[in-house]
Specification:
Elements lengths: L1 H30 L5 H4 L10 H26 L5 H7 L3 E2 L9 H16 L4 E7 L6 H21 L7 E7 L10 H7 L1 E8 L1
Parallel strand pairs: 2-3
Antiparallel strand pairs: 1-4, 2-4
């Protein structure tokens, strides 16, 4: 008895699916617009283009494509003297647990500011770093304070703020992997990296 009921349900289900599938197909066919053959034909231009006109259009399109490629390549060209500038932008160093700029750091920042003002096309990222002592969170915050202190000073020296970005690496990027006072002094620093033209 159960087998007959299951078979009957399966047959009924299949019949419903088939009939609903057919109904949808008919509805789609009814909704499709009927386009007369005359309007469906592709419109021909009223006057065929001459060979000169076709060549001129092709040259114009080629010229536009070349112009776009040249503009893109100009954006991506390396800064001609980036190596010299990178070497010229000096690091500054900080005292233990401090983001205050020493007089030596201010003098170096003044030189860096002059270089940046002379090279108006460059942008610089200031990377704040710390020594290995202290927690990771504390050093990230301290590195950020150090980078921001240098940024603020450069802006007061006349460098546009939109040309400077900052990042803190905390103790992630030591300049010296030693575990003594000399190594720690080298690691408490801001570095200046040219990011773009």
């Amino acid at each position: 008895m159960k087998k007959h009921a299951v078979s009957l349900c399966l047959i009924l289900g299949c019949a419903i699916l088939v009939s609903s599938g057919c109904a949808k197909n008919e509805m789609v066919k009814k909704d499709e617009p009927v386009v007369p053959a005359a309007t469906a034909a592709v419109k021909q231009p009223s006057k065929p283009e001459s060979a000169k006109e076709q060549i001129a259009k092709a040259e114009a399109a080629k010229g536009q494509a070349v112009k776009k490629v040249m503009e893109k390549s100009n954006e991506l060209q390396p800064i001609p003297n980036a190596g010299e500038l990178k070497a010229a932008l000096e690091k500054i160093y900080f005292d233990f647990d401090s983001a205050n700029l020493s007089q030596e750091a201010r003098d170096i920042l003044a030189k860096n500011a002059e270089l940046m003002k002379n090279e108006k096309a460059i942008k610089v990222q200031i990377e704040g770093n710390c020594d290995e002592r202290g927690s990771e969170e504390y050093n990230l915050a301290l590195g950020e304070k150090r980078a921001k202190a240098a940024e603020k000073y450069l802006v007061t020296m006349g460098v546009a703020a939109d040309r400077i970005s900052t990042i803190s690496y905390g103790k992630e990027k030591p300049a010296d992997t030693g575990h003594d006072g000399a190594a720690w002094a080298k690691n408490r620093r801001d570095e200046f990296v040219i990011t773009s033209k």
